[in-house]
Design the sequence.
């Protein structure tokens, strides 16, 4: 189970359907990501990190620091 995705969603009091809609995926597929039953495509992982204002490292349990990295100047 990807407890980070679950915890972030619950903390914002959102449904799986609401997040899935924002990420342009089905609720069923989002549920599979949240339960760890499916690998999250990199492009969707980037969108999830942006959506939750966190880093991919945090979503993948590589760090316990939830803050996102500063954006690069273009």
Sequence:
């Amino acid at each position: 189970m990807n407890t980070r995705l679950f915890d972030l969603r619950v903390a914002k009091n959102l449904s799986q359907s609401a997040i899935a809609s924002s990420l342009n995926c089905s609720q069923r597929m989002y549920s599979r990501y949240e339960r760890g039953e499916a690998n999250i495509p990199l492009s969707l992982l980037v969108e999830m990190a942006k959506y939750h204002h966190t880093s991919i490292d945090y979503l993948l349990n590589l760090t316990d620091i939830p803050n996102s990295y500063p954006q690069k100047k273009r």
Remarks:
- Residues 42-52 form the longest helix (11 residues).
